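Lab meeting prep.
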Amino acid sequence: MTPLKEAALVAARDCLGVQKNEKVLIVTDTKRLAIGRALYEICQDLGEEVLFMEMAPRTVNGAEPPPAVAEAMKHVDVVICPTTMSVTHTAARRGACEAGARVGTMPGITEDVMVRCMRADYHEIARLTEKIAEILTNGNTAYVTTPAGTDIRMPIDGIKAKPSTGLVLTPGTYGNLPSGEAFLMPKEGASEGIYVVDGSLAGIGLITDEPVKITIEKGMAVSIDGGDQARIFEKTVNSIGEKARNLAELGVGTNSMAEINGTILEDEKVLGTVHIALGNNMSMGGTCDVGFHVDGILLNPTLKIDDQLILEDGKMLV
């Protein structure tokens, strides 16, 4: 068995728990066919029936798949989505989960990322992720600083955090694969400060230019500053509209096998990092419904939840 198929086996058998009596749908696009095919072939031996749907790549993270794909996602037990852009924060994914499907999303997955990160100990990842999620859920205020200039406060009281453990075994649940993050939606309209993306940015890749400095007032991005990469990002935000400026997510990476490489699926899982996203927060209980959700990775963060230090200069203290 090839390393790619071995990784596909871990994803389907261990992380999604595909059973002999279950129907599985693989949703992929023209740029991720090799991974989609590996999952399709592996699932032939695990499930009762396996369907395969290929679409054109979406243009931004959070854009909806075609209606036919969204409908098919509601009629199977397990959906696995190795796609170029993320379908995690879409109505299609939410509809599938509401219908009882278990959904594993793999936005921007590459063969290298799949082979490397599916080797992690997902039971250990689950332990840490659930602990961080518990701390976030019980917290009132998240405060993040970084050497690059991040200084932002995000009210989180009354918000339930989500642990993305990599184990998606309960009907109606979802998560990224590879996984390892605890995340939540800061209170809408309430965050204040600056966050500086110096790791990577979804849709842009590794930050090789100046860091991207995003100023937040009343929970909205009021300015995006930096070099060429910042200008490209700002142009995309402007093309989507005002809702793309919503501060949507605070996340904490918990996967010790993940590395920063410009693929946001892996980057946001790196142990010792924090990510902050703009755009859609519907999947986290929010009201900002827009076809856009873009995470930015912050390096060497110090994260404090109320009086408890979670990270200090990128070192996990939990």
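Slide two material, second protein:
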Amino acid sequence: MTGKGVALQGALAVVGLAAAYLTWQRQPELQAGEVFVLDITKNDLQKIRFDDEDAKTWAELQLDSDDNGSFVALRLSEREAPEAKKPASAPTPSKPTPERVVRGSDAAQTLYQRFAPLRATRALGVLDATKLKDLGLAATKKHITVVTRSGRRVFAIAPAPLGGTDPYLRDQTDGRVFVIPRSILSDFQAAATSLVEHHLHGFRLEDADRVSMAAGSAKQEYRVARAGDGRGVEIASTHAPDKPDPAARAWHERAFGLWPSESLGKGEMPIEGEPQTRLRLDYFARGRSLGWLTVAEASVSPGQSVSSTSPAPKKTFYARSESTLGWVKLSGDTDSLLTEGVKLVGGKP
């Protein structure tokens, strides 16, 4: 091939790559009846903030990254502690949930992507004061701020009036009003639950071929293989790889399915102080690290007295993994699960 031909091929390759990049940046074209509220690309979008003055809360979505790649980070405002009836002798009320940054869930990722570009199911144009009042936009205390590379746009948002289904959005810059999908508002309003990542791992147990366990100085390794009868996986000690251990498999399936009751923010310390690591698991596939899990036990809560005559204080357990930005509080029967795990490793319960 001549130099001219090589140059032509190179130019065509560059054009193809540019087209692929632009296709990735831009969402599919508008559906019938849809209009753009914000005609921006993923690369333009920097942050989305939802303010709810009625609930006295706010939530922010922003792209972030760590050793495992990029993700949507969710920043949540401080929230008041839930009110509950307490006896007169009860201690001071629990502290409010502090402002925190956590990893966003798949729902957070989807919500973030919906703003690049942001579509509306209908455009109503600029409405008069009476109509704005009828739609709830005149006095709404809910707003969405979208920060892009070229600046920021603020939108007032109001739930659908009685008999309606979808909320209304008003561009504070030019006064245009739109009808947008209901899930945008409902997801933001439930951000503290629906937009927080609760899964401790982004892979499946059957994706691993080896798991290493450590409890103090004691260590144990297990081989993981897909079960031939469709029952998930078979797990066996590497010392006896041809002898599947049903008890070990049952334990690892429970440990893999641990579910947090609360996710603390990045850099946030549990109220009891730094938890003490009791067990660590590392997952591998073909020699490559897939992820890890640390289960730790918290000390006695501050101000909680312990005496020889009082019952033993309830234990509190926390965990961290490759998918968490900080400690997560564990629910369920973690105590017995941890005891069984330590025994599997050969350590002291």
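Talking points for slide two:
Residues 70 and 221 are 30 Å apart (CA to CA).
Confidence is low (pLDDT under 50) at residues 19-25.
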